[in-house]
């Protein structure tokens, strides 16, 4: 494998991972972050 193809493969796998996480476990962590940010502003 050339370094370029290795990089492309890594980026592809990472984007797949983010898509899967976004589809399944999207809710809790982002909600928590949103709530904590909102509490800090008040």
Layout of secondary structure:
Elements: H1 3-24, H2 26-41
Gross morphology is: elongated
Number of strands: 0
Q: How confident overall, as mean pLDDT?
A: 76
Helix content: over 70%
What is the CA-based Rg, rounded?
Answer: 17 Å
Write structural notes for this entry.
Helices cover 90% and strands 0% of the residues. With 42 residues, the protein is an all-alpha fold. It has one domain (3-41). The longest helix is centred in the first third of the chain and has 22 residues, at 3-24. The mean pLDDT is 76.
Gist of the model:
The protein is mainly alpha-helical and 42 residues long. It has two helices and no strands. It is elongated, with a radius of gyration of 17 Å.
Name a few traits of the molecule.
signal; mainly alpha; 42 residues; Adhesion G protein-coupled receptor G1
């Amino acid at each position: 494998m050339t370094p370029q193809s290795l990089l492309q493969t890594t980026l592809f796998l990472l984007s797949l991972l983010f898509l899967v996480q976004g589809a399944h476990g999207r809710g809790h962590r982002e909600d928590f972050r949103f709530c904590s940010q909102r509490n800090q502003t008040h």
